[in-house]
Structures are given as structure tokens and as C-alpha cells.
Design a protein that fits this description.
Layout lengths: L6 H17 L7 E10 L2 E11 L2 E10 L2 E13 L5 E14 L3 E15 L5 E7 L2 E4 L5 E2 L2 E11 L33
């Protein structure tokens, strides 16, 4: 059975999915710090993401191409899709670099992507589109896509579905008074 939707139907479906994803809880990521490799068509390099606010990260990229090197810093806003393991993100930032033939260059970056935290592992996969406007370069604009694999260095606190359901309010827990040295089974 094949379903065919008109353009109006597709736009309505996309709008409903976007509204549903924005209505979900604010947990858009399952990690605080992740680092790994970024692979694009004309370059590759390192990527490091650091969560700075509830749904916001800073990402640093160190990229190497056939004739250039560059460093990029991006601020990204994450939005959950059907839970915290799958999310999409938007961001912006800037970059500086050096081309072997033309020298130093810089530019402004935008970013749109999707990422997935693989269940029961410490790996995050992402695919993004990062258009750039270039200054002091032969290319005035670039439109690269890239795939990243990151390893989670610092995990987010567990915010699972059943957290707090059976253990009560953690802020009201009473602390046990500290006692003297711990006694063993045969210490009298």
C-alpha cells in the first residue's frame, strides 16, 4: 500500500510534527560533553560539543581540507524529536582559516542538522548542513554537508521516565547523621 500526499498534505504533516516536537519536554540531549570526528566531502577534522544551557551547546570544529585548514565555533539550539535520543538543531557562528594558495580567510556560518544518541552506547551520530559566507576567499559561499561521530565524555544526569516516581522528591530527602567509625560484624 503506497500513500501519496499532496504538497498541502506534506506541509500539514511537517507542521504537525514540528509542533509536536516543540511541545515535548525540554530534554533535547543525553550528554554534556562529546568529542569525535567530522567527515565531509572536501574536509575532515575534530568536533567537540559542550552543553552550556538546557538546550544549547557550543561546538568547536578543527577542519583540514586538501589545501586549507580552519577552525569554527558554533552556538547551537537543540530540539527533541520523540524524546531525547533523537533531536534536530540549528545554529550559527564563525570561522577562521588559512588557504595554501590565497592565505588567510574568515566567514560566517549557519547550521542545521539532526543527531541520534545510539541506545546503550556512548556514541552520538549527526548529519548536518553548514552553509558559509566567506570573506577574503575565492569562494564567496560554500554549502557543505558532513557526518559526525562523537563519543560522550560527560553524560547528562538521568532524566528517565520513571525518575522520581518511586523514590519521592529528592529535595526533601533527609540526610543521615554522620556517626563514628564504622563497626564490623564482630566488633563489640
Amino acid at each position: 500500500m503506497i500513500f501519496r500526499f499532496s504538497l498541502r498534505g506534506r506541509l500539514l504533516l511537517a507542521g504537525c510534527l514540528l509542533a509536536a516536537s516543540l511541545a515535548l519536554p525540554a530534554h533535547a540531549q543525553k550528554y554534556r560533553t562529546a568529542a569525535g570526528l567530522r567527515l565531509g566531502k572536501n574536509n575532515y577534522g575534530l568536533t567537540v560539543q559542550q552543553k552550556i544551557l538546557d538546550k544549547t551547546t557550543l561546538e568547536g570544529l578543527a577542519l583540514v581540507g586538501t589545501r586549507e585548514v580552519s577552525a569554527t565555533v558554533l552556538a547551537e539550539r537543540h530540539f527533541g524529536i520523540l524524546g531525547p535520543s533523537l533531536n534536530y538543531y540549528f545554529g550559527a557562528g564563525g570561522h577562521l582559516g588559512n588557504h595554501k594558495d590565497t592565505g588567510g580567510f574568515g566567514g560566517l556560518d549557519a547550521l542545521a542538522g539532526v543527531e541520534y544518541k545510539i541506545a546503550f552506547t556512548s556514541f552520538v551520530l549527526s548529519l548536518d548542513f553548514k552553509p558559509t559566507v566567506e570573506f577574503n576567499s575565492n569562494n564567496w559561499a560554500r554549502f557543505p554537508t558532513a557526518f559526525s561521530v562523537r563519543y560522550i565524555l560527560l553524560k547528562e544526569k538521568n532524566t528517565g521516565l520513571f525518575e522520581g516516581l518511586f523514590d519521592g522528591d529528592k529535595s526533601k530527602k533527609k540526610s543521615k547523621p554522620k556517626s563514628g567509625p564504622r563497626k564490623g560484624l564482630f566488633d563489640f
